[in-house]
Structure formats: structure tokens, C-alpha cells
Amino acid sequence: MATPIPDTRQKILEAARLTVQSRGYAGLSFRELAKDVGIKSASIHYYFPSKGDLGAVLAQKYTEDMAGYLEGLLDGTLDRETCLKRYTDVFRTTLRNDNRMCLGGMMAAEHDEVPAEVQVEVVKFGEMNVRWLARALALPTSPRKKTPAASAALETQALAIFAAIHGAQLVARSRGDVAVYDAIVAAYRASGLIP
Amino acid sequence: MATPIPDTRQKILEAARLTVQSRGYAGLSFRELAKDVGIKSASIHYYFPSKGDLGAVLAQKYTEDMAGYLEGLLDGTLDRETCLKRYTDVFRTTLRNDNRMCLGGMMAAEHDEVPAEVQVEVVKFGEMNVRWLARALALPTSPRKKTPAASAALETQALAIFAAIHGAQLVARSRGDVAVYDAIVAAYRASGLIP
DNA sequence: CAAGCCCTATCTATCATCAGGTAGGTAATC
DNA sequence: GATTACCTACCTGATGATAGATAGGGCTTG
């Protein structure tokens, strides 16, 4: 199967994602984006009629891509702790990429300044993560760990983990130091918030 | 002692804080701000030569104001759990104010788009919080709770709490629902992250 | 085969609006 | 006169978006 050549639309989305993860939705401009892709800004309107459209598609794709990756982690070969480690590593990797943060977290901060169609996708991103985390929390555990709790409690714990990871990323971002993220996540584990 | 009349500089700072907490530093414009205060935008330059100056003073003042409040909580009359409850309530109150978020958290997200003098103040804000939290964690506890840990471990726990609270606020903000914040914070307490 | 049409994907030029910032002016007060 | 605290007018640069143009490719028709 041949490797698909990235088309212009994909290139736009990829460049936009990187920009939003560092400079926010407010820092995303069609002119800069066009330069990144090697086209002119009016051409972006061909693919995305408005900035809001681009933002919404971007957030939606971000959720789908991440869901795909996370789904692969639940194929039955990994235990709970490893799954959760892989999860926290996703956010770590984003930080490691020029101190970037999660696109969902960024747009959540920018809540009042993004269009409603983007806000909706940000909430969906959160919900996808929490659902996944609840499933991961329900996995069989490695030896000598406590057994998983009931379903509603898992959902709440999942929500708390999701929030805590975003906070860890945010603080590490302000310091420009991924070791801060690592220390915080280790403290979460030590406290039992993350198994 | 007469109540001091808020002067223009104070009014500017107050209005700017509210704007940044909802719309971010990127959403702060001198023209809008001037309207909020009832002056013209050129007048703001009289007090703050540049937007970066305003941003840095704003973040600094935010830290000082919060430090003052938190210091009052450590006057010896409150136990550890109550202090920490008051702490989490600070961020809750911000959410309750038209779904706003902590100015430090907002500017941390906007890290790449704020001037260096603002970034520095954001880090100081975090450090002040973590120092305070470590002191609060070291307070005598109410009956039947575990005794405080050693000093370095307190610092790390304090950092983790600081991060976790910011994440909780961020997620609640995206949902526009303070009950989400409450649920997350309760889960932090249930897990032992927050005593 | 050539011409014409349509579609796709890009472009130039432009618009209206907004931003931070500057220079100079004015009024009130001491 | 000097200082303070405001103002108007303006500058430059940036933004999302629009209208119209163009080139290339594929398909249909005579």
C-alpha cells in the first residue's frame, strides 16, 4: 500500500495544529499559516471558509487522532499501569515538542475567544479522554495493586486524572521544563490519583 | 481612616485583570480597556507605556494580592484541611465569576504569546502558590488525619496540588460548569492528593 | 483531434476593521 | 512655569474575509 502524499488540506491542518499548540487559536493567522504551508492565505479559505470552521475541524481531528491512538492501547496486551503511563506520555511528548501544550487544553483556556463550534469540540475532546481513562482504569492490573472500583467512581477518577494531567502540562509549560511535568505526575502516582 | 477612592491606575488594573481572566492577554486591548474604565486608550499609555508593562504589573499584582490573602489564612487559627479548602475555593470563586480562570493559568497557556517580563511573573505566581501550599501542608491537622511528611516531599505535593487545581479549573471552564470543578476536587481529596 | 466547458486549486487585489503605539495639545493645580 | 492626567489625530501593521481572475486537467462533443 503506497504512502499517501499529504494534500494541501492535510498540510494546513497539521501546520494549524502546531501553531495552536504553541500560540493558541488567537495566534493562528491565515497569513502565517499560508506561509507555513507554502500557499497564499486566500487559498486557505478554499478549504476552510472561515477561521471558525478551521478551528472546529482541527479540534475534531485532534480528538479523532488521539482516540485512534488511545484505542490501540486497549487492544488487550497492556495492563492498566502501562496504559496510563502511555497516556501521560502523550502529554509529555507534546511538551517535548517545543514546549507545546494539548490543543484541547489551549482552546479550553481560550474558551471565551473561540467560536461555539470550537467550544463544542473541546468538550467532546474531554469526554473522549475521560471515557478512555475510565476504560483504562477498569483494566486488569499488574500484581499487588488494588482492584478497580465501581463504574461511577471510575468516571470521576478518570475526570480527575484528565484534569490533573492538563494542570501538570500547563505548569510545566510556564516553566519551560518537562521535568516539572514528570515530578508532578510522579506525585499524582504517589498519592494514588493515578494508579 | 477614609476609604480610598480607586484611582485610574487601579481601575485600569482591575478591568484588565477581569479581561485577561476571561479573554486572555491576547484578548486584552487598550481600546476596550479604556472603554471599560471610561478614558481613552492613549491615556492608558500614560500609566503603562506598553502592553507588556501592563501585563507584567498585572501579573505581579495578582500574585501579591493572592499572597496577601493566603498569608491571612496562615494566622494560626485554621487547621490544614480548612486552609486547603479555602485555597481551592479561591479558584472556584474565579470560575463562579462568569466562568473566568486564574490569570496565572491563562498567561501560562499563552506562554509563547506574552512578553518575557510577563512570563517571569507567571513563574513567580506559581512559586508563591507552591511555597504557600507547602506551608499549609505542614500545618497541624484535624484529628485522625495523617501527620505531615518531610519538607521536600511537601514541596512536590504542593506543586502537584497547584497543578491539579489549575487543571480542574481549566476543565470546568471548558464545560462552563463549576460542579465539574467541585467533582474533580472531591476526587483529588478522595485519592489523598489534597488532604 | 481540437475546442469548449466545467471543476479544482491557486492567485492578486482589495476591503473593513482592529491593534499598539506616538506626537502634540489642553486644562487644572500648585 | 511645571506637573499631572487626560485628550485628538494619526501612524503603521496586522487580521479575516471577499471578489474576481487564472491555469491546469479531465471530459464531452462535433
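qc> The first helix of chain A runs from residue 8 to 23.
qc> done
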